[in-house]
Specification:
about 170 residues; mainly alpha; 3-stranded parallel beta sheet; two-stranded parallel ribbon; 9 helices
Length: about 170
């Protein structure tokens, strides 16, 4: 449910390398898509990595990609960790126009939101960041402001207060 069926063919029209980290039950299909669309020179599969290595890759990224299929309320109202990883790494991203992403983006504008996982939507979102240096720079600056609010130091206080209210 990560939109690979559209993202992989979209790479034919995107002049950069896509780095995929992680593994899962769909990885064999991802490999087949890479071959079918002849983008093996544009897609790098890193496999499972420790958090420190993921952080290093996030900091080197030019654009973050956070695609989620709307397969139910769980996905529709989700907030992926990588959304915040990209924010903290100051990496503008392309993500879904789902309520929670939109709520944060309305406040800080750190991403290009797309309405669906159609290949043309993904290409348009990515190319928007690749072709508009002013927009890219603004989103990057907005990440600085957003990470001041969305960080563990602030969230830790909320979590401690939550548990104090429950357990006294």
């Amino acid at each position: 449910a990560r939109g690979f069926e559209s993202l992989i063919p979209a790479m034919q029209q995107i002049p950069y390398t896509l780095v995929i980290c992680g593994d899962g039950n769909f990885m064999q299909q991802v490999k087949e898509l890479i071959i079918r669309y002849d983008v093996s020179d544009k897609v790098e599969l890193k496999g499972m990595l420790p958090p420190a290595a993921l952080w290093q890759i996030s900091q080197q990224a030019f654009i973050g990609i956070n695609l989620v299929e709307n397969n139910g309320l769980n996905q529709y109202y989700s907030l992926a960790n990588k959304f915040f990883d990209y924010m903290h790494a100051l990496v503008p991203q392309v993500t879904m126009n789902f309520p929670e992403y939109r709520r944060i983006n309305d406040q800080f504008e750190i991403a290009v939101l797309i309405d669906d996982l159609q290949e043309k939507s993904i290409i348009a979102g990515i190319n928007s960041l690749l072709n508009n240096k002013e927009e890219y720079a603004q989103l990057m600056q907005n990440c600085i402001k957003a990470r001041e609010l969305f960080n563990w130091q602030n969230e830790e206080k909320k979590l401690i207060n939550f548990y104090k209210n429950i357990f006294g």
